[in-house]
Every structure is written in structure tokens, then in C-alpha cells.
Amino acid sequence: MSDPTVTPPVQPPVPPAQPSDFDISEEYGTARKNLPPVGILLICVAVVAVIVAAYVLTHRAHTVNAGSIDDVVAVEMPGQEMVMAAVNVSIHNNEEKPIWIKAIQVTADAGGSKQTDDAAPAVDAQRYLQAIPELKQHALNFLTAETQVNAMSKISGTIIVTFPVKADAFAARKSLSVSVTPYDELPIVMTK
């Protein structure tokens, strides 16, 4: 039997006979070993860039509709420094589907400043024409929000707006712009 108080002799570590040729980069690899050649990568990147560019160019929002300002009649409001204008516009829907008008705004650069007004609703516009017969001279059907413009067709109508300028300042205006905004489309901007 052996004595438990006696400990076995400790052996000194054995030095390696020859240094190891282990390279950690071999273990995990390098880009040169794990990736395809640079030429193939550049071709793939170029193909993806061409596909993305073609998609962006063909699917961007663009105006396919047009319009024009046909006539403007302005009347000074009695006792006020304000004009009421009846603006006749035409809108051409060049799409294969109908569009609905979301909003109509008219901007006048007159009297040294730009003034903007929304088109009057049809009910109010009818009352304005009854109260001011001069506006009826060239009036058409009213063009208001929610008006439908059929596919591949043209619609003309009258917009009634007011601006806080005198009649002579409005007559000498620098510009008059009408912005018709359809749902899900870019605005149709007409300037005269």
C-alpha cells in the first residue's frame, strides 16, 4: 500500500521541439480566398444599379395632365378694397383612368404681394354670380373639388376667387396661377 503523505515528483515542462507554422488567417480565410473575383463583383453591382435606375425612372411621379387659363373676369367689390374674379380654366386628362379634383387654389401676384385663395364651393359661387352679374359674362359650369375628369378627356369650368387688392392692381398683376390638385397625382399648375 502506498503512503498518502508522499507526493509524486513533478515533471518539468517539455519545450516544443520545433515552432508551429500555424497562421490564424488561414483558419478564417481572406477576402481573396472567400469572395469571387473583383470583375464578377463589379459586373453584378453594375447590373443591380441599372435595374434600380430603370425602375426609378419608369416609376417616378410625373404630370401627364395639362391645363390652361382661358379667361379672367374681375369685378371690384363695392365699398371694399377687394376684387372677385371668375377664372375659366380647361383641364386635359391624358391618362387611361379618370381623375378627381382634390383642391383648387388660385394665386395672384398683384399689388406688390402674392395672394392665394381657394376656389369657392359651387353653392357659394352660384350666389356670387347672382349678386354680381358682371361675373356671368363668360361663366361656365363651376369647377370645384370632387369634380371628375374622365379618362382621355377635357373639362372646362369656372372658378370664383377673391383677392384683397384694388381692381386696378389686379388688372396690372404680374401673374395669375391656378393649381388644380387631383387625388394621387401631382398638381396641374397653369399660369397666365
Task: Note down, in words, how this protein is organized.
The strands form 2 sheets. Strands 3, 4, 5, 7 and 8 form a 5-stranded antiparallel beta sheet that branches. Strand 7 and strand 8 form a beta hairpin. The protein has 2 domains: 24-58; 66-191, Immunoglobulin-like (Sandwich), CATH 2.60.40. With 192 residues, it is α+β, with helices and mostly antiparallel strands. It is elongated, with a radius of gyration of 39 Å. The protein has helices at residues 24-28, 31-34, 38-58, 122-131, 167-171, and strands at residues 66-76, 83-93, 99-110, 113-118, 148-149, 153-163, 175-182, 188-191.
Features:
single chain; 192 residues; alpha+beta; Immunoglobulin-like; 2 domains; five-stranded antiparallel beta sheet; three-stranded antiparallel beta sheet; 8 strands; elongated
Rounded to the nearest angstrom, the radius of gyration is 39 Å
Q: Count helical runs.
A: 5
In CATH, what is the class of the largest domain?
Answer: Mainly Beta
The CATH architecture classification of the largest domain is Sandwich
Number of strands: 8
Principal-axis shape equals: elongated
Would you tell me the overall average pLDDT?
Answer: 86
Give the % helix.
10-25%
Q: What is the string of SSEs from the N terminus onward?
A: HHHEEEEHEEHEE
End-to-end separation in angstroms reads 119 Å
**Could you please say which CATH topology of the largest domain applies here?**
Immunoglobulin-like
Query: What profile does the largest beta sheet have?
Result: 5 strands, antiparallel
Structural class: alpha+beta
Can you tell me the number of structural domains? 2
Taken as a percent bin, the fraction of beta residues is 25-35%
Low-confidence parts lasting 5 or more residues at pLDDT below 50? Answer: none
